[in-house]
């Protein structure tokens, strides 16, 4: 699983700037005043081949007992609980404060791996200004400048090395060959644990009519018709404003990790509640992760014909980007509709790992161009020449040619439809990339 790094500290020390450096994005809003970040903010980073999840937090006041600062403290405490390593950021220019002592004492009490980061330390590497931070008792002070990028890479390497994580090769060896990792994801109380219990034929997981019963991602081995599965029951994902209770402190990050580590994800919806914005957010994360996907509407037996029409309409409206995924209506409690569901899950897994030869892809591309040429871009019309497969899970198709970077999104969707039909790519996202040929005489 991807390691988790949490960035904590008092307000306005540069936590969000450091977050943006790690994720190579501008996802976190940065401004020169305190208290801008309030909720936890999750992002993905990469250092070489090593990937990680980073959490940006609001200004931390461990002793806050009222108002927005109390809620911000709860968010930060949950981020620390979810993290494998904590980066405690202080302001090298403003110096040590009483609030820094409170945070350091809180981290020492937890016994969590923590690195002390002195931000805004440009020009201070040899200076005595950093000496005062040693009294926090958290070991060496690591000077960085998040705004200028100084020392950020070394800090990240140190944070990841401190975890003693297995290499990618070791991780692959520990995964049993031929086992399909199936994650069941969805909002709280949609019936994820009930569905897995029904598959297993025993009360293996706690299923109770109260949201938040599952606190962690639970893995259960399972075999069906000779195919081995690893069933992963994930904790339900809630809206940001509702992830305060300690019972859910692990749910968000564990669910995100379980989805990314899975081969196939079953997105479970609740027919009695319809499709919510949160369902769409979870579906979007699954697609962004590139995981094969099947959608199932649970508790279908508990709604009448009018409610069923409403659910179908809300799916067409809010989950229109999941047209590639197969949809099933089931009742986990009454064991209805579960047979066809397995067929779709295996089909989606096969599609995610399908091998497509370059001659076949090029033939399909040329036939598509003959059927409908791309629109002109200025004086020139893009000319796709050939295509090859650039990856699996999800399948990636790389199109080469002249000016292909000007292919419109509509034309890429047209090509995607042709490729899906030709190679039976049902239940998996498909990514199309373009690479324009270089003209050696351009200079």
UniProtKB/TrEMBL annotation:
Keywords: GTP-binding, Nucleotide-binding, Repeat, Ribosome biogenesis. GTP 2 binds at residues 186-193, 233-237, 298-301. Residues 3-167, 180-353 form the EngA-type G domain. GO terms for biological process: ribosome biogenesis. SUPFAM superfamilies: P-loop containing nucleoside triphosphate hydrolases. InterPro entries: G_ENGA (IPR031166), GTP-bd (IPR006073), GTPase_Der (IPR016484), KH_dom-like (IPR032859), KH_dom-like_a/b (IPR015946), P-loop_NTPase (IPR027417), Small_GTP-bd (IPR005225). Gene3D superfamilies: 3.30.300.20, P-loop containing nucleotide triphosphate hydrolases. One of its GO terms (molecular function) is GTP binding. GTP 1 binds at residues 9-16, 56-60, 119-122. PANTHER family: GTPASE DER (PTHR43834). Associates with the 50S ribosomal subunit. HAMAP family: GTPase_Der. Belongs to the TRAFAC class TrmE-Era-EngA-EngB-Septin-like GTPase superfamily. EngA (Der) GTPase family. GTPase that plays an essential role in the late steps of ribosome biogenesis. This is GTPase Der. The gene is der.
């Amino acid at each position: 699983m991807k390691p988790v790094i949490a960035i904590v500290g008092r307000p306005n020390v540069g936590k969000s700037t450091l977050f943006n450096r790690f994720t190579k994005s501008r996802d976190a809003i940065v401004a020169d005043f305190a208290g801008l970040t309030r909720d936890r903010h999750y992002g993905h980073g990469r250092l070489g081949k090593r990937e990680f999840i980073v959490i940006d937090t609001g200004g931390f006041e461990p002793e806050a007992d009222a108002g927005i600062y109390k809620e911000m403290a709860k968010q930060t405490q949950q981020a620390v609980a979810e993290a494998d390593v904590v980066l405690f950021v202080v302001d090298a220019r403003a110096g040590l404060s009483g609030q820094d002592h409170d945070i350091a004492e809180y981290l020492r009490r937890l016994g969590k791996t923590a690195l002390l980061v002195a931000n805004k330390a440009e020009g201070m590497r040899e200076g005595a200004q950093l000496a005062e931070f040693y009294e926090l008792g958290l070991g060496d002070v690591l000077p960085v400048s998040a705004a200028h990028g100084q020392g950020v890479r070394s800090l990240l390497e140190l944070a990841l090395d401190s975890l003693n994580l297995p290499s990618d090769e070791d991780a692959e060896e520990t995964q049993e060959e031929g086992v399909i990792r199936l994650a069941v994801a969805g909002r709280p109380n949609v019936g994820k644990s009930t569905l897995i219990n029904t598959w297993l034929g025993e009360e293996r997981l706690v299923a109770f009519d109260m949201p938040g019963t599952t606190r962690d991602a639970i893995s259960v081995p399972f075999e069906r018709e000779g195919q081995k599965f690893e069933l992963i029951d994930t904790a339900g994902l809630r809206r940001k404003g509702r992830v305060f209770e300690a019972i859910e402190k692990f749910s968000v990050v564990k669910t995100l990790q379980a989805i990314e580590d899975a081969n196939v994800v079953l997105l479970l919806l609740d027919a009695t509640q319809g499709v919510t914005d949160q369902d769409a957010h979870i579906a979007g994360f699954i697609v962004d992760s590139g995981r094969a996907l099947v959608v199932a509407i649970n508790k279908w037996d508990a709604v009448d014909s009018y409610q069923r029409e409403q659910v179908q309409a809300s799916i067409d409206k809010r989950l229109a980007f999941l047209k590639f995924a197969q949809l099933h209506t089931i009742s986990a409690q009454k064991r209805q509709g579960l047979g066809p569901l397995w067929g779709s899950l295996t089909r989606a897994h096969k599609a995610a790992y399908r091998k497509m030869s370059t001659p076949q892809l090029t033939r399909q591309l040329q036939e598509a161009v003959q059927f409908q040429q791309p629109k002109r871009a200025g004086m020139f019309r893009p000319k796709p020449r050939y295509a090859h497969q650039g990856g699996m899970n999800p399948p990636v198709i790389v199109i080469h040619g002249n000016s292909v970077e000007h292919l419109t999104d509509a034309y890429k969707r047209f090509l995607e439809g042709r490729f899906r039909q030709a190679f039976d790519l049902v239940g998996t996202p498909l990514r199309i990339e373009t690479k324009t040929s270089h003209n050696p005489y351009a200079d």
